[in-house]
Amino acid sequence: MSNQKITPLLMFNGEAEEAMALYTSVFEDAKIESILHQENGEVQHGTFSINGQVFMTVDNSHGELVDFTPAMSLFVTCKRESEIDYTFQKLSEDGTIVIDLAETPFAVKFAWIIDRFGVSWQLQLEKSE
Known about the structure:
Elements: E1 9-12, H1 16-26, E2 30-37, E3 43-50, E4 53-59, E5 74-78, H2 81-92, E6 96-104, E7 107-114, E8 120-125
Parallel strand pairs: 1-4, 5-8
Antiparallel strand pairs: 2-3, 3-4, 6-7, 7-8
């Protein structure tokens, strides 16, 4: 069995540092770990963590815009209603609401949004057992 570590890498079109700042401001246990800038100020390599999960970021330096796809999303399970309400509000600002925050058969509240950077998020307030 391998001890490989898998870390999500998010490539932005010149907005990596702004995205890291937003994401680390939304979640309680989150911080920017490191940022290495290119000479032009874009992020050559950055890392941030949310609740112990490390993410890597880079700014696209190839000149051609590359967008995210909602076929891959970050799924967040919230413990408190205030937490999902706040997270939904912050991540949906200037973004697109795919599924509005509402009760579903599988969650007290659920939403699917694409934030202003194009990253897809699914938010769930799980039902208590």
